[in-house]
Amino acid sequence: xxxxFNSFFQPQRQSKTGIVLLFLYNIGMVIKNLWVLIxxxxxxxxxxxxxxxxxxxVAALLILIVSAVLQYFHFKYYIDEENEEFVIHEGIxxxxxxxxxxxxxxxxxxxxxxxxxxFNIYKLEIDTPGSSEKEVKISALTKQNAIDLKKYLLTExxxxxxxxxxxxxxxNEEIKDLRSIKISTFSILKYGITANYVRSFLAMVxxxxxxxxxxxxxxxxxxxxxxxxxxxxxxxxxxxSIPVILGIILVVIIIGIIVxxxxxxxxxxNFKITENNQSFSFEYGLFNTRNSxxxxxxxxxxxxxxxWIQKKMKISYVKFLQIGKNEEExxxxxxxxxxxxxxxxxxxxxxxxxxxxxxxxxLKPNFRLIIVNxxxxxIIPLLLFLIIEKDLLINYWFLAVVYIVLVxxxxxxxxxxxxxxxxERFIRLKSGIWDIDNRTFEVEKLQTxxxxxxxxxxxxxLGSITFYTSAGRFRIVALNFTKLKKxxxxxxxKIETN
Length: 498
Prior knowledge:
- By secondary structure, the chain is α+β, with helices and mostly antiparallel strands.
- Helices cover 47% and strands 25% of the residues.
- It folds into three domains: 18-175, no CATH class; 176-355, Roll (PH-domain like), CATH 2.30.29.30; 368-415.
- α12 (368-388) runs antiparallel to α14 (397-417).
- InterPro entries: UCP026631, YdbS-like_PH.
- This is YdbS-like PH domain-containing protein.
């Protein structure tokens, strides 16, 4: 039986059930990378002797088993007490040593993917600033070991403490548990129905195209005739009436919404937020249970996203960007809460900043931005198309008209929503067309601020401002340059005095 708390100061291995897990991972990697060859093997298996099939399967299984055992015994981890580093040794032929300074550890996430549940083990991921990928993954830990290791790595004090002090920390965290929030399944469903449907539609179309492409390549390899007359396909598709085509598109969109709603519920099921003294943790997932911790002091930007339908439903999507994170990263690497209502959102934000920002001052872009965007997104593309494919543009002029109307509407909506809010402590950038983003950050946490002005903007007194944070940079253009100078001076003063 394992000790209640493990010091982790001595090199140790993962749970022994990790051997089975590594074996299954290896099988998955083989299938993922060689699935085309496997399919071809079974398609033409009549040309291969039975004994050759059996030998190949047995040999492959033996290699994978030996590989899993070697991976298990060569993987060791421990805490270097003297240098305050977390150290990982791994590799079979090419061995590697990974060292992470404890002070640089930003997140430690515990998750239990579906396959881990069969073995009652957990996966632990360690994240540091400046990387889009997890720095270290330990795939097979007992629940107690995973929790203890996370507490060791995230504690603000030195590593030099005893097991008794760790007991005190755990007890204090339990006592100082301030409150918890649970996002209802219905709220998550509402978010799933009203978010990412355009992306889901495009993803389905991309998946269909990829599937047909792979199927065509596979049929070619087995010597099937797969020549397609794309002119004939286009002619037959356009032969349908416009209502039928619109109906097909509508059905695909509805399927995309349903798929996205189901995916969202599976991913964020039973979403719980637990607040502690220094941080708050997220726990969610139906088949793949995840547990991540967000340190309050390391949150750089809070992004609130909400569209018109979500506003009527009083729900939104809140994202927390920490040091080294940015909005371009994968969703799974960014802490976020879906389907949170306004009251819960206010509570969550107030735990980080001790207040909910209120803004009285704001700047809005000059109307000349509409002219610039019209020239950039309408006039230039149509001129290029006219030069390259003049006849096509003339024959399908009605599509050009539709394009002009839709893009113009988007430009006007975007201009209407673009705002820069500020007060003594916070700055907020509002932008978007359908999904409206409100990015809020503290002035004191800014790294630097820059303003710029092109020579042709001097007469109109316009310019742009860029805010640099440790979680990315954000720019807004066509604002009053005199007011930007005052805002710049104030921001620099707050940064320097801090």
